[in-house]
Structure formats: structure tokens, C-alpha cells
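User: Can you recover a sequence for this backbone? Please restate the input before giving your answer.

Assistant: Of course. Working from this structure:
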């Protein structure tokens, strides 16, 4: 279950790096994965665009994690 709490820039970078590590472990690379520098006060992470085959692998990794 997801939890919600306030995060700042440091936590946003840590979250992005954590996501990148998890994706890498699943054999998935999101080349455009980065923090959103255009609106740093929102603490957004840009996942970017991916090819359809990458999206399918991502969906499968999420399904495996939910099982």
C-alpha cells in the first residue's frame, strides 16, 4: 500500500534513483527518467516516453510485483 507524505528536492532525487534502480533490476531502462527541473517546487519525476515493447515489459514487471 502506498503512503503519502511531504517530500522535498532531496527526497525527489532519491525517489527517482530508487525507481531507476528497481527498473534496472527488472531489465527496464527509461532513458528520459529525471527530476522535473521546470517545476522543482512540485517535486515531480518525469518518466518520459518509451517504446511499446518497454511499456509492455514495465507492465509485466508491475504485475509480477502485485502477485
Amino acid at each position: 500500500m502506498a503512503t503519502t507524505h511531504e517530500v522535498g528536492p532531496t527526497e525527489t532525487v532519491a525517489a527517482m534513483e530508487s525507481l531507476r534502480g528497481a527498473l534496472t533490476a527488472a531489465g527496464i531502462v527509461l532513458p528520459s527518467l529525471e527530476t522535473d527541473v521546470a517545476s522543482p517546487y512540485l517535486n515531480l519525476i518525469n518518466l518520459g516516453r518509451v517504446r511499446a515493447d518497454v511499456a509492455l515489459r514495465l507492465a509485466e514487471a508491475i504485475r509480477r510485483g502485485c502477485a
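That completes the design. The radius of gyration is 13 Å.
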